Amino acid sequence: MKLPNFKYNPNPIKLGVIIEEVTICPVCEQKRNFVYEGPFFSEEDVEGICPWCIADGSAAQKYDGEFQDLESCDEVDSDEFVDELIYRTPGYTGWQQEYWLSHCGDFCSIIDYVGWEEVQHLENEIEADLNRLCEEYGLSIQEFKDTLKNDGNLQGYLFQCNCCKKHRLHADAS
Questions:
Q1: What is the similarity comment for this entry (predicted)?
Q2: Contact 174, 153 (CB under 8 A)
Q3: Edge-first strand listing for the sheet containing 109-114
């Protein structure tokens, strides 16, 4: 069975939040070949959710849970965008609280985990984010570039606007 498409997380397998593993989903109670391994915020400790129960919103509904904390998101123009991200999109794995960026009034798609090496060609495009992150972490631009490493102590998260295709960058530290 083909995996569902997720607007805000188009490649959750690449990000390691959906893995190929046989499971009995606690939501639909069906045997599935893929399981969600990312963040899920619920009072219950839930494991084994399948991607299809994320996509249709039944996992979030059954466990009164969220895949992303609304307080850790940029603002967007529509409650529909918020509902899709929080209740029907697999998250990503961050060091601290995952943060979701937006652009053009909608949430961006998470593209990959990155270090400076992977995004240096986008420096002009992500300049505003670089300045924001340097201020947030008290680093000079050069210190930030030297410290941002994929799987390092300062991890980058590359996003892309679904409308204009502009890239955005977020980072957090271990």
A1: Belongs to the UPF0167 family.
A2: yes
A3: 109-114, 154-160, 167-173
